[in-house]
């Protein structure tokens, strides 16, 4: 109990696999060491309900494909500091057909998860990085992946203008990380927008990206009514976005 990270959700099946059978878990709850927060899930008595502790449990104990991503991943990585931060809400991405348990969706965490379903990459692991939140270590989207997740929500669930502002701040991306993510990304819209925004922002790393190895599909992608045509990337965008 002393070595368990503060705020970590403890799942009954995982505890059982670690040598703590259900009968012993019941004794811990009766004795006031553990507190139930729903079927099959507990926290140490006195611990607050923190979203990071819930997601860490889902990742490492339940082996579910769920992570903090999009704008929230950029915020906690310090890459969206010049934009207004919404600490009441955290963007969470889950892979298609992943069912989140009721203890996760029914509890009130320190920040409310805003859940999106996405399968942007052929291999999800390529886009994740370790993040330390107090005593908790969990996987979140790296900066490149988080930017692509924002673009995947454009224009209906995320403003294009805000996405471009975020891209402007990504001056230190590494081409060695960006290139494989662009090659593995399954969304033509995301890849075209990413390249268009990066080129327009004038980032020094952009010139090292080999666009010939990236499948940009065919045909026009329209993201605005009565928009302006960006010919190089075959995009129709709001007039204020296109130079």
Cα shape: elongated
Q: State Rg.
A: 21 Å
Instruction: Measure the end-to-end span.
Output: 58 Å
Q: Strand order of the main beta sheet, please?
A: 1-3-2
- Round the mean pLDDT to the nearest integer and report it: 93
Structural class from helices and strands?
alpha+beta
Low-pLDDT runs? none
Most strands sheet: 3 strands, antiparallel
Number of helices: 9
Residues in helix, %: 25-40%
| Succession of helices and strands | EHHEEHEHEHEEEHHHHEEE
Strand content: 15-25%
The number of distinct β-strands equals 11
What do these coordinates show?
33% of the residues lie in helices and 19% in strands. The protein has 243 residues and is α+β, with helices and mostly antiparallel strands. It has a three-stranded antiparallel β-sheet with strand order 1-3-2. The chain has a three-stranded mixed β-sheet with strand order 4-5-6. α4 runs antiparallel to α6 and α6 crosses α9. The protein starts with 9 loop residues before the first strand and ends in a 6-residue tail after the last strand.
What brief labels describe this structure?
11 strands, 3-stranded mixed β-sheet, 9 helices, 3-stranded antiparallel β-sheet, alpha+beta, single chain, 243 residues
